[in-house]
Design goal:
Elements lengths: L8 H8 L4 H13 L9 E4 L5 H6 L3 E2 L33 E3 L5 E6 L2 H8 L4 E6 L13 E6 L8 H11 E12 L5 H9 L1 H4 L1 H8 L12 H10 L2 E8 L3 H9 L5 H9 L3 H19 L17 E8 L2
Parallel strand pairs: 1-4, 1-6, 4-5, 6-7
Antiparallel strand pairs: 2-3, 7-9, 8-9
Helix pairs in contact: 1-2, 1-12, 2-10
Length: 314
């Protein structure tokens, strides 16, 4: 399967993440940057989570009745840095409008509840519970395509990259979306230069433990060295987001999202649907100017994320 071009990824992800429009924009740009790449089976989606991103990337589409906010965990634990989306499915029903153009052979994640949600998409042939700090549970040369956007949070990153190389077929390719040192620039500046004026409570609320998940951040040169040491050669670099998108994502509606979720989920279904449709229409108009992987307000800065298409060094 070749990832389609000229698709309205923004609209699709606003439907999924409508209460977090900054996330919708980021994920839409991630997809936009992957357009034209061929995904050959057997394929592996490392840290697939609930599967919604890859489902959409492969051409799947959800009805308006679906979004990720209907079945969350205890919203009161949001400010304790809990993953509110890692919750037992309960009443979770992924209302599918269009099936994907292809399936993924294997999806892995270390959170069982997310895998349970992914299973309900009927999109992955196999789902495996796995912590990426441990060796990958697959034989050598197993996959023609590997996708991951989570390498940077793995503690044993060198071992993990070597494992990706081990299970990648000699003619296969891995698509790795890796965050760079630029991703933490704002919070470092706030803590170092503005903590006295803003107070640590303000900074902690908008960060909410996010920087704790950045186990490994490198600039392009650093990631290039890491990949080479693991036996992977870069055949293409693709950018998807700029510093402008990062600033929008740094805060967005994240700090108040539990309250928005609680409010939305208290509405009758039909009223919620109508409000959601209006909300999506407004946010799509607001975000369309930014739906551009090169949008940088004419200021060239280091990219916060780089997509590396890599092949084994044979």
């Amino acid at each position: 399967m070749i990832i389609p071009s000229e698709k309205n990824w923004l609209r699709d992800f606003l439907n999924i993440y409508w209460l977090r429009p900054e996330n919708a924009l980021w994920r839409a740009l991630n997809c936009k940057s992957l357009e034209g790449i061929e995904l050959q089976p057997p394929s592996l989606d490392l840290s697939c989570g609930d599967g919604v991103f890859s489902f959409t990337l492969h051409g799947g589409k959800f009805k308006t009745a679906y979004d990720v906010f209907k079945d969350t965990g205890d919203l009161n634990k949001f400010y304790e840095n809990a993953d509110i989306y890692n919750a037992a499915p309960g009443e979770y029903i992924p209302a599918i409008e269009t099936r994907p153009n292809a399936s993924v052979t294997v999806g892995t994640d270390w959170k069982q509840h997310l895998l349970d949600k992914a299973a309900m998409l009927d999109f992955y042939e196999t789902l495996v519970l796995h912590d990426n700090n441990n060796p990958l549970p697959f034989e050598d040369d197993r996959f023609n395509t590997i996708y991951s956007n989570s390498v940077y949070w793995v503690e044993n990153v060198d071992s993990h990259l070597s494992e990706i190389r081990r299970i990648l077929a000699p003619d296969g390719k891995a698509i790795l979306q890796l965050k760079t040192t630029a991703i933490s620039e704002l919070f470092e500046t706030l803590r170092i230069d503005y903590a006295d004026q803003l107070g640590t409570d303000f900074i902690d609320i908008i960060d909410r433990g996010r920087t704790d998940n950045h186990a490994h951040l490198h600039d392009d040169s650093g990631w290039t060295d890491k990949l080479a040491d693991a036996g992977l050669k870069i055949v293409e670099r693709r950018l998807s987001v700029t510093w402008v998108h990062l600033r929008m994502w740094d805060i967005g509606l994240r700090p108040i999202s539990p309250h928005l979720i609680r409010m939305a989920n208290s509405l009758p279904d039909e009223q919620r649907k109508l409000i959601k449709e209006d909300w999506i229409e407004t946010w799509e108009r607001l975000l369309l100017p930014f739906y551009n992987i090169d949008f940088n307000l004419d200021q060239q800065r280091s990219p916060p994320e780089i997509c590396y298409v890599v092949e084994p060094i044979n």
